Amino acid sequence: MKKSKASDIAILAIFIAIMVVVQVLSQIVYSMWPLPIVPTLLHIPVIIGSIVLGARKGAFLGLVMGIISIINSTILTTPLSYVFSPLQPIPGTNHGSLWALVVALVPRVLIGVFPYFIYKAMKTRTGAAIAAFVGTATNTVLVLSFITLFFGQYTGMTFTNLIQLIVTGNSIAEVIIAVILISAIVPSLEKSR
Predict the structure, then answer these.
(1) What residue intervals traverse the membrane (predicted)?
(2) Which of 35, 58, 109, 115 has its CA 20 to 30 A from that of 135?
């Protein structure tokens, strides 16, 4: 039992280290990135962790992703940092909002849950691809929906803008990258386990 717990903790630590490296490298690359599309990549280790380690550990990895998002938005200020960090003031005010925690954490925790059940139902490369799509869509749809719901009055986001953002640019790139990587990585990890 102790060996199993130690092994689980080690594997979670490896996934967290991968997430930190992905975050740091993507920040460096995107600072010099010439294209307008800037896909999020941090959800990919969360989806893989969910599929390989289970929904509970996947949810934990999603929580870590959300915490990374909060820290990133608190330290590296952008015009929309306030939607992910309660420590960043909302434009026109001198305070943040606790709704930022919902935006940053809830979708990310669910990224770590849904893919596990999708893949469990279809343990194939196609199942991994569908799990990648669902995990990525969970992040995109929920984050943008929560931003519209809680911060729409500050961002100017309407339901129409929400739909346009979901089906354009970053969303498509994120889905394509996640599907390709996860459908290639998960079957190999499953064989090695």
Answers:
(1) 9-30, 36-53, 60-84, 96-118, 130-151, 163-186
(2) 35
